[in-house]
Write a structure and sequence with these properties.
28% strand; 3 helices; alpha+beta
Length: 81
Amino acid sequence: MNRVVFDFNDKFSLLTDGNQWLVARRGKRDRWDAIAFIASNKMIVQRVLNEKGIKMTEDAKRAMDDLPFKFRDFIAEAADD
């Protein structure tokens, strides 16, 4: 089951399935269409956003700054919650 980590804007969000981050577009009927799968680090997430021309809101920029650098650290923090 995919979980929204945070929204980049009103059309795109960062999700996780527990194995990786997903950059996803909000589709029809509240369905998510994944456009990238990233299990490494947030620099790759940023690269995907740049390549796809996805703009982030100020809240999304702060959330990205707060995101652990590596996906495995993100999962470890989530397990501690």
